[in-house]
Amino acid sequence: MSLQFYNTITHRKEKFNPISDEIVKIYTCGPTVYNSAHIGNFRTFLFEDLLKRYLIYKGYNVYHVMNITDVDDKTIKRAKKDKKLFEKLTSKYSALFMKDIEFLKIIPADIYPRATDHIEEMIQMIANLEKDGIAYLSKDNSVYFRLSKDKDYGRLTNLNLSELKSTDRVINDEYSKDNPQDFSLWKSWDSEDGDIFWDSPWGRGRPGWHIECSAMSIKYLGEHFDIHCGGVDNIFPHHENELAQSISVTNKQFVNYWMHSEHLQLKGDKMSKTQGNFYTISDLISKGFLAEEIRFVILSAHYRTKLTFSIEQCSEARSAIQRITSLYNRLINIANRNLSKFKLPSEYQDFITALDNDLDTPKALAVFFKWIRSINTKLNNDHDMNNGEIYGGIEFLNIVDNVFGFLIKENFAPQEVHSLTVEREKYRRTGDWEAADQIRHKIYELGWIVEDGSDGPNIKPKK
User: Fold this and answer.
1) For residue 209, which of 320, 330, 70, 100 has the smallest C-alpha distance?
2) Which residues constitute the domain of residue 212?
3) How many structural domains is the chain composed of?
4) Residues contacting residue 131 through CB under 8 Å, at least 6 positions apart
5) Distances in Å between the alpha carbon of 249 and those of 126, 131, 234, 285, 461?
6) 192 and 327, same structural domain?
7) Radius of gyration in angstroms for the set of CA atoms belonging to the chain, rounded to a whole number
């Protein structure tokens, strides 16, 4: 199967054909830095990391831009009209976001443009739209996009303007898609903005949210690029409006593939700051969870299905991560270091086929864990594995880690611990529990714990 992705704008899976053989260009909507990003936001960021990792594994060079939204309605409201407090606030939460992505092993973007550093580009884009009659100045000196000038508006969300009630205009960034409206490109200053404003041909004010991403994506990726990602809540109005204004100003396609991840839910509800039902990464760290465990919970569900998050899932993920790490350590310790050739296990191709099919992570991981069970069974029953099989297994584990980021490589158990574990298994199979317990105690004294599971022993460091 060739690599294919579900394209939001066409509502079907499509074969991935990059614009250039040289590089794949991706734009992802980053955080709005008025507060800490929550685990629901990170579901989208982890999906995008998976996409990027898999494209890299498939041999593509990837250039990734993720914006930082550091001016919008929410940031200004949180800063309480004070520009110094505003800048301090957005810098603080930008830094926290960078700390969180580092902890989660998310591969950094090539560039993180901040909206406030690109006001000039936004003003120029709005001026071009105004010159073409697509944007207009209102009586209060705000500038709006004229929906009637875009005959294909609604192309991303499959809206039919003729069947919907259309109202005059909206100054807010978010609104109902049942009432499509001329949306703001430039918001004129009012007293609620305090001293947070920029000068423009239309007077003091600030950009609308949607124009920010158009200006920054076009500046760094060009007028036509490969993939645009975000969460499903970005589809309307943000991405719909971004698409409309970008096509209108360039007369080009803008983006080939639109990809969106579904909501993360907590007890059946969408996780959100406004509802107060969310966990931050710091919350999960304080509960003792590792990055690999969080990644496992998020990435084991398909990115286009809703996922209900719970603390219990992280606890269950711990067992899965230990199984992966334990097998990796086990194979490393029995491998002959002189091998130069190996063959990947047959399950590898099924794993790749699943991921080629719109990143079908549940199926790919089912294949992977079935393989883990089969290898552990061989090792537990003293079945010989030649060095080529062992190295093929190690390489398969490395490939899975390159794509998913699940492996904890710093917890290598020494050869002595693995040898004792194998010896203990022999006593367990013969029912000599006293001898098995004595060996468990020896392993504990060496600083390691053995936990018995259905797939064999898991070895982890003693805390």
Assistant:
1) 70
2) 4-261
3) 2
4) none
5) 9, 10, 21, 45, 58
6) no
7) 26
Residue 271 lies in a domain: no
For residue 314, the model assigns a pLDDT of 87
Mean pLDDT (10-residue bins), the chain, 463 residues: 95 97 96 94 98 97 97 88 87 96 97 98 98 95 93 88 67 71 93 93 96 98 98 95 97 97 83 73 91 96 96 89 90 74 92 98 98 91 81 95 89 68 80 88 83 70 69
Q: Is the dihedral of CA 263, 267, 273, 278 positive or negative?
A: negative
- Phi, psi angles (nearest 5°) of residue 43: -60, -45
Q: What is the pLDDT of residue 427?
A: 85
Residue 309 lies in a domain: no
Dump pLDDT digits (tens) for 259-270. 999 999 987 666
pLDDT in tens, 108-167: 999 999 999 999 999 999 999 999 999 999 998 999 999 989 989 999 998 877 666 555
Q: DSSP class of residue 262?
A: P
Same domain assignment for residues 146 and 239: yes
Kind of pairing, strands 264-266 and 269-270? antiparallel
What pLDDT, on the 0 to 100 scale, is given for residue 49? Answer: 98
Q: Which residue has the tokens 């294949």?
A: 367
Provide the strand spans (E) within 288-442.
Answer: 307-309
244, 170: one domain: yes
pTM across the whole model: 0.88
Same domain? 437 vs 354 = yes
Q: What is the DSSP letter of 236?
A: I
Domain presence at residue 37? yes
* Buried/exposed code over 88-113 (b: 16+ C-beta within 10 A; e: otherwise): ebbeebbebbeebbeebbbeebeebb
* Cβ within 8 Å of residue 322, ≥6 positions away: 451, 458, 460
- Domain boundary, last residue among 212, 236, 261: 261
Phi, psi of 373 (to 5 degrees): -60, -40
191 and 325 part of one domain? no
15 and 152 inside one domain? yes
The pLDDT value given to residue 413: 63
CATH number at residue 231: 3.40.50.620
Final residue before a domain boundary, out of 217, 240, 261: 261
The answer on 233 and 92 residing in a single domain is yes
Q: Does residue 162 sit in the same domain as residue 28?
A: yes
Assigned domain for 325 exists: yes
Encode 45-77 in three state secondary structure.
HHHHHHHHHHHHHCCCCEEEEECEECCCHHHHH
Cis peptide before 237 (omega within 30 of 0): yes
Kindly tell me the sign of the dihedral angle through the C-alpha atoms of 16, 233, 34, 188.
positive
